[in-house]
Amino acid sequence: MFTGLSAFPLTPLQNDAVDEAAFIGLIERLTEAKVDSITALGSTGSYAYLNTSERRRVAELAVEHAGGTPVFVGIGALRTSDVLTNAANAEEAGVSGLLLAPMTYQPLTDDDVFKLFRTVTEQSPLAVIVYDNPGTTHFTFSTELYGRIAALPRIASIKIPGVPADPEQARARVQEIRDVVPANVTIGVSGDAKAAAGLAAGCDAWYSVIGGTLPALALQITRAAQEGRFSDALVESGRLDPLWQLFVECGGSLRVVAAIAEHLNLAPRACLPLPIQGLTPDQRKRVGEVTDALGLGG
């Protein structure tokens, strides 16, 4: 389950409540596209802004409408007790795996994070994806910590940040991680602009922001890489440079993907949780122009 394209959908909000119809539409869109898995309540799914009850409901809806596609659910929270509640609710909803990020207000140590993962793997029977996203969590995993955590039972995959731009350095980085984790633990790349490079460097999966809204696009890159057509994957990723540049210009992928979903009428206007304001009118216009010019509406 922890290979190929794992699509991270938005959790659209309207009037400060989860827009269930819009969320179901996104899940069904992913199922119809035949993504390899769906990861609800990732950073793209705004998990950190939702309470326990909202997250339980989102997990239920994702499984109900996934049509048999494996569903993973983010369970990260500031307190371990809340993490365990989220894990139990996700298990009851019927998910296939858990995505765990070490959320923090006070700085965390490596031992703090290791013991968090150990506690979850001791108390939940579900497979766990290690979520390394220092841009949102403000915690950076060392390679050594990858190895310590990956040795725990039920650790299934590690979601790493984007790989270096140089192909040889990218391959070396992926191999460095492989050298410290068990063979059964997959390595998944994130950072969409570097996904093709990560797959070419030997990553097993792409944990994809854009795949949650534009699955056909992400699948084209993923399938090319899986078939060994790495040059085709890199060319297609290069064609999308205007999109990747928007991620940089607009302060990250979340606001851009939300604007794309709104432009395509897949989510209501202002679908992000406050205080996140979304993009300015000028930025929204630019996103719409890029979306249309690249033919991203399919």
Structural descriptors:
298 residues; globular; TIM Barrel; 47% helix; two-stranded antiparallel ribbon; 10 strands; 13% strand; eight-stranded parallel β-barrel; single chain; alpha/beta; 13 helices
Low-confidence spans:
none
Number of helical runs? 13
> Which sequence of strands runs across the widest sheet?
1-4-5-6-7-8-9-10
- What is the CATH H-level superfamily? Aldolase class I
- Measured as a percent range, the helix fraction is 40-55%
CATH architecture label:
Alpha-Beta Barrel
CATH top level?
Answer: Alpha Beta
Provide the number of structural domains.
Answer: 1
CATH topology value: TIM Barrel
Q: Report the principal-axis shape.
A: globular
Task: Report on this structure.
With 298 residues, the protein is α/β, with parallel strands linked by helices. It has one domain: Aldolase class I (TIM Barrel, Alpha-Beta Barrel). The chain contains 13 helices and 10 strands. The strands form 2 sheets. An 8-stranded parallel beta barrel has the order 1-4-5-6-7-8-9-10, surrounded by 6 helices. A two-stranded antiparallel ribbon has the order 2-3. Helix 3 links the parallel strand 5 and strand 6. The longest helix is centred in the N-terminal third of the chain and has 14 residues. The protein is globular and about 45 Å long. The mean pLDDT is 96.
What's the SSE blueprint?
Blueprint: E1 4-7, E2 13-14, E3 17-18, H1 20-33, E4 37-40, H2 52-65, E5 71-74, H3 80-93, E6 97-100, H4 110-123, E7 127-131, H5 134-137, H6 143-150, E8 155-160, H7 167-178, E9 186-189, H8 195-200, E10 205-208, H9 215-226, H10 230-239, H11 241-249, H12 253-263, H13 281-293
Parallel strand pairs: 1-4, 1-10, 4-5, 5-6, 6-7, 7-8, 8-9, 9-10
Antiparallel strand pairs: 2-3
Helix pairs in contact: 1-2, 2-3, 3-4, 9-10, 11-12, 12-13
